[in-house]
Amino acid sequence: MVDVWLPYGKTDVCARVPARNLIGSIEPKERPACPDAKAEVERALKDPIPKGTRRLSEIALPESKVAIVVNDATRRTPTEAILLPVLAELNLAGVKDENVTVIFGCGSHRAVEPQEAKLILGEEAYKRVNAVSHDCKAQDLVSVGSTKLGNKIFLNRVFAEADFRVLLGDIGIHYYAGYGGGPKSVLPAVAGEETIKFNHALMLSANARSGVLEGNPVHEDMKDAARLAKVDFIVNVVTNSKNGVVGAFAGELEPAFQEGVKLVDDMFRVTVDRRADIVVASCGGNPADISLYQAYKAIDSALEVVKRGGVIVLVAECPEGHGNQVFYDWMVRFPDLKSVEREIKRNFALGGHKTYFLLKALQNHQIILVSSLPDYYATNIFKLKTARAVNDALNDAFSIAGKAARVWTITLGNYTLPQVKGATEEEQPSSFALAKT
């Protein structure tokens, strides 16, 4: 037997896999965090991308009204470490703090509470600049045109009417936009509700998948929206699984974002030589497995390396249950994938997309959940098999896949993008088609 320790909540559980069955463990190529995150951001600001780009302090005008978009409370972005050096650069240009507005890019999420705002921005920045939450249902949104795909782009008025627009965020793998960060800080972050719905409905495309930008309509639409918004400057960071800043990237939106994507790929895109009959995937522990809604990302990773008809064992504590009411409601309301697709096209709601992806995964795979989620919800609502412990789940998986079944384990499923070396489009996971990039 081989003991594989998997993060579960704030602890670890041990999966005992017969040596003859275990192919190996898929893990990201983690890098240590920079000793000083703020210093790394300052370095990036002094050397913007691409080479020859003027610094933020050289392009912002003293009289500029500046809008800075930051992530809301649903993200772990180290915003304080990014924002303070940016404010210093703006001050160097002669921009006064009272002319700077920080906009929490809530997208269709709720507004940021005052206490959350202090935690996100830090005490110093919170006191220095005005901060507001974007409301996607606001009546005074500004139209800036339409994307190539026909999405009418309505944006936050403060952002649209600013003289200078800056995006702050972090870059990571995203399961239908390809990657987070970059243009996502415009759409959905500061976009109107109908604009967001149009964009997110594009996830039905086979090319809307993890780690794919070229040909991904969700990303292409976001990129068009950011161009229409006339973004002046971005600062994005890449973090490791412990949320430590590994690298910072500043400058023009698309080149700086692309450089960050390269680092994400180097760390989290892992190539393997084959698919397994069984994949045992941990999300990476708390907070990645705080709810089933968050834990789905590990299923998405497992789908890349499990065979058609294979079994996924999802190791996720889920102390907050399902984690999203729309996710729950759509699982109850809609009997099959086709009806969910119709609803996404007609009336997209954040949370419904998890229903779509989960039902799609269940079309050709069996999923066994090891969690604290009551069996009633896991089985009757979310259509998952359950087991009390990871080794019970493994025994059930072998009963389904056969005693000779080969096994991959994934320790940090929410952060890792595995891919099979040399796989053709037809050999990709049955629930998805690989975009030609």
Could you outline the blueprint of secondary structure elements for this entry?
Layout: E1 2-8, E2 11-17, E3 22-26, H1 37-46, H2 56-59, E4 66-71, H3 79-92, E5 100-105, H4 114-121, H5 123-128, E6 130-133, E7 142-146, E8 152-155, H6 157-160, E9 164-170, E10 172-174, E11 178-180, H7 193-201, H8 217-229, E12 233-239, E13 245-251, H9 253-268, E14 269-272, E15 276-282, H10 292-303, E16 306-315, H11 325-333, H12 337-347, H13 352-364, E17 366-370, H14 375-381, E18 385-387, H15 390-401, E19 407-410, E20 417-420
Parallel strand pairs: 3-19, 4-5, 4-9, 5-6, 9-12, 14-20, 15-16, 15-19, 16-17, 17-18
Antiparallel strand pairs: 1-2, 7-8, 10-11, 12-13
Helix pairs in contact: 1-3, 10-13, 11-13, 12-13
Could you name the key traits of this structure?
437 residues, alpha/beta, 2-enoyl-CoA Hydratase, Chain A, domain 1, Rossmann fold, 6-stranded parallel β-sheet, 6-stranded mixed β-sheet, 15 helices, 20 strands, 25% strand
A few lines on this structure:
By secondary structure, the chain is α/β, with parallel strands linked by helices. The chain has helices at about 35-45, 55-60, 80-90, 115-120, 125-130, 155-160, 195-200, 215-230, 255-270, 290-305, 325-335, 335-345, 350-365, 375-380, 390-400; strands at about 1-10, 10-15, 20-25, 65-70, 100-105, 130-135, 140-145, 150-155, 165-170, 170-175, 180, 235-240, 245-250, 270, 275-280, 305-315, 365-370, 385, 405-410, 415-420. It folds into 2 domains: about 1-25 and about 270-425, Alpha-Beta Complex (2-enoyl-CoA Hydratase, Chain A, domain 1), CATH 3.90.226; about 35-240, Rossmann fold.
